[in-house]
Specification:
The chain is α+β, with helices and mostly antiparallel strands and 364 residues long. It contains eight helices and 21 strands. The longest helix has 18 residues. 40% of the residues are buried. It comes from Tritonibacter horizontis.
């Protein structure tokens, strides 16, 4: 299943002019606050009417200005997950979950209630009211309600923004399961590089109302010109397999020919992982390092050097683990005699890889 968007919409002094097509999977709309992300997703939902263009999900047209077609929101068969859960306070969790199914014929109910309850671990909550739920529990219920509407497309507008870090870590694996197991396309809005790295199959970069790039997360996050939230969010997205759990609280990953150690991941040995390493957390050495506390050493060759306007430089390395990006000073690059083809070693502290930067499933 795919979806295509080609729309123009003006609101006051702001103009959205967005064109992109995305394959099945989880498509992240990535951009700064004010870039038009929520305007875009609300246009797809039918909450805003574009001035021109068309929106299509698989073979179903939701909007076509030329044909004067604009399906009402209730007829678009979309599941919408908001920044806040927006649950009905007077209804139990069970009745909140079933609310999205009330207008569906039996033949349209492609998702089983029990399956969603199991996937999102909602069984113990079914008789409770929203006021007796934690923030993470409320958001899980909101996700379940959207999925039980048997949607053609799931829309998620910064669904983790209102949650603290423990609750975000609770919710992220559920989005990974939805992406990998349900086969429903997801349009997911965020300004978080960590969420892009963990969840995205495709990234649409939005800046000042315009799409500036469409690509894989590893490609987008490695390019400082394309990361709209600033150079500190530039980094690498790597894939590895969990090969061992160590007694000292570290998990060992195998990425290409490189063993990497990260804070313990509560996954089974053999699980395929994807994770992000921020460029500013990478140190470079032109010889094999000795006498360091850092456990992760990734050998590679310099693929490119991009000097910034300030003192920094972005060094891209080709390694067996994948493309690794380091942000160092231009002075350091000169002192190390770095040039394209130079053999170097990327050094990363285990604790520099945060829990929200490590996800499971889906090859990249």
């Amino acid at each position: 299943m795919t979806f295509d968007v080609d729309i123009g919409l003006r609101q006051g002094n702001f103009t959205l002019d967005a064109q992109f097509a995305a394959p099945a999977g989880l498509t992240v709309v990535f951009g700064r606050s004010g870039s038009g992300k929520t305007t875009l997703i609300n246009a797809v939902a039918g909450l805003l009417q574009p001035d021109r263009g068309r929106i299509q999900v698989n073979d179903v047209l939701l909007f076509d200005a030329g044909a004067k077609l604009n399906l009402a929101t209730r007829k678009r068969r979309l599941g919408y997950i908001f920044q806040d859960s927006r649950l009905f306070p007077h209804l139990t969790v069970r009745r909140n979950l079933l609310y999205g199914r009330r207008t569906l014929w039996a033949a349209e109910q492609t998702v089983r209630f029990d399956d969603i309850v199991e996937m999102l671990a909602l069984g113990p909550l079914l008789s409770r009211h929203p006021s007796h739920l934690s923030g993470g529990e409320r958001q899980r219920v909101a996700i379940g309600r959207a999925l039980l509407a048997s949607p053609r497309l799931v829309l998620a507008d910064e669904p983790l923004t209102s949650l603290d870090m423990p609750r975000k870590l609770e919710i992220l694996p559920y989005f990974e399961r939805i992406r990998d197991e349900l086969g429903v396309p997801i349009l997911y809005v965020t300004h978080s590089a960590a969420e892009v790295a963990r969840l995205a199959t495709t990234v649409v970069v939005l800046d000042k109302g315009r799409v500036t790039q469409i690509g894989a997360p590893a490609e987008v996050l490695a390019d400082p010109n394309m990361v709209p939230t600033g150079v500190r969010n530039v980094g690498s997205v790597l894939q590895a397999r969990l090969v061992k759990q160590h007694a000292d609280g570290l998990s060992e990953l195998q990425a290409g020919e490189v063993a990497l150690f990260v804070p313990r991941i509560e996954k089974s040995v053999g699980t395929l992982m994807r994770f992000r390493i921020a460029a500013h957390d990478v140190i470079l050495s032109n010889q094999p390092p000795v006498g360091l506390s850092a456990l992760n050493v990734i050998p590679g060759e310099v693929a490119s050097i991009r000097a910034g306007e300030g003192p920094g430089a972005l060094i891209s390395l080709t390694t067996s683990a994948g493309l690794v990006v380091a942000r160092v000073t231009q002075r350091s690059a000169i002192r190390l005699n770095l040039a394209v083809g130079t053999r170097v070693y990327a050094i990363v502290k285990s604790v520099a890889i945060a829990p929200d930067d490590i996800g499971g499933g889906l090859e990249i």
